[in-house]
Specification:
The protein contains ten helices and no strands. It is mainly alpha-helical and 194 residues long. 22% of the residues are buried. The model has no long low-confidence stretch (mean pLDDT 96).
Length: 194
């Protein structure tokens, strides 16, 4: 894999997640996330691997056309920071593949909490050393789960999978996205309430 600036998955410098693997498993149970879902995600990763740039074009097109979202990537002059957007895009592309292919183990859990920190005022902009909006509001963190889910289906359909297989992959994707949004919300939640 080519070096992706700011991609620190599995780095020993990442803090350990304040959640246990048992707590992660409980969240998965609440989502009805099963081993069959993980298998469906593996299949999805094979289908999506060579479509990542096209997926990102759709997602970035949506964010870029939505002023209150693109503002999170803008400098003091209100203009989007192109270099910042490119670095985030590379990590976002890797996130698609990680969602499908990585084991949901301690390294994965630690990185999910890091992603949450990078959206929150405690870590936003630090990875890339930029002066963009200092915080992504929680409401948008949750709201974006839907477009990231809904827009993926056409990409899952492109390689000839049977409709029922596409549905399994798409629903597994939704569960995985919701799982991660839950984990990313950790820094936003009052201590003791998560």
């Amino acid at each position: 894999m080519a070096e992706i600036p700011g991609y620190t998955f599995g780095s020993p410098s990442l803090p350990r997640a304040p959640l246990t693997l048992k707590e992660l498993e409980e969240i998965q149970q609440s989502l009805t996330f099963t081993p069959e879902d993980k298998e469906a995600l593996q299949r999805a990763g094979d289908i999506l691997e060579d479509q990542v740039d096209d997926i990102l074009d759709v997602w970035y097109g949506f964010v870029g056309a939505t002023p209150h979202l693109v503002a999170y990537f803008a400098g003091a002059d209100g203009q989007p920071l192109g270099d910042y957007l490119q670095k985030v895009r590379a990590r976002f592309g890797q996130w698609i593949l990680d969602t499908c292919r990585r084991p949901y183990d301690q390294a994965w859990l630690d990185y999910q909490l890091e992603i949450g920190r990078r959206h929150h005022r405690t870590g936003k902009n630090l990875t890339d050393g930029v002066q963009a909006a200092p915080h992504i509001h929680f409401r948008h963190l949750v709201a974006l789960a839907y477009p990231i889910f809904a827009t993926l289906k056409p990409f899952l359909e492109k390689k000839g999978a049977l409709p029922e297989e596409v549905e399994k992959m798409h629903h597994a994707w939704l569960k995985a996205v919701l799982l991660q949004v839950i984990l990313w919300s950790y820094p936003y939640v009052k201590e003791g309430d998560f």
